[in-house]
Amino acid sequence: MGAKVQAHDPQVQSLAQLMPGENTVRLARSVSFVNDPMAACEGADALVIATEWKAYRSPDFAAMRKLLKAPVLFDGRNLFDPAEMRRLGFHYQGVGRRSA
């Protein structure tokens, strides 16, 4: 569909490491890995958190808002409080939670 993904995972540095045996050449056109969690936010339309790594539990939300095109956060692990995220100016959606 044309989406570009900037991904970060402290345990994964490449698409081949994440998906051995898959067609990584085709996927590499749309998925890139960055070395810093905040770099994944830079210029992104939204942020999706899909793991519970410690590095993701206490981000600099003000810096994150500046890096994202829009303050949209989909939290697949429900790491953050919806009311607090709304107070910080984010459109926040936790999996299985009402949107804030």
Question: Which band does the percent of strand residues land in?
Answer: 15-25%
Q: Which strand order do you get reading across the main beta sheet?
A: 3-4-5
Return the CATH topology.
Rossmann fold
Average residue pLDDT:
86
**Unreliable spans:** none
Could you give the order of the helices and strands? EHHEEHEHE
The termini sit apart by 27 Å
In the CATH classification, which architecture applies? 3-Layer(aba) Sandwich
Largest sheet: 3 strands, parallel
Rough outline: globular
Q: Helicity, in percent? A: 10-25%
What does this structure look like?
The chain has 100 residues and is α/β, with parallel strands linked by helices. The chain has a single domain (5-94), classed as NAD(P)-binding Rossmann-like Domain (Rossmann fold, 3-Layer(aba) Sandwich), CATH 3.40.50.720. Helices cover 22% and strands 17% of the residues. It contains four helices and five strands, in the order E-H-H-E-E-H-E-H-E. The chain has helices at residues 15-18, 24-28, 61-67, 82-87; strands at residues 5-7, 31-33, 47-49, 72-75, 91-94. The chain has a three-stranded parallel beta sheet with strand order 3-4-5. The radius of gyration is 14 Å and the shape is globular. The two termini are 27 Å apart. The relative contact order is 0.15. The mean pLDDT is 86.
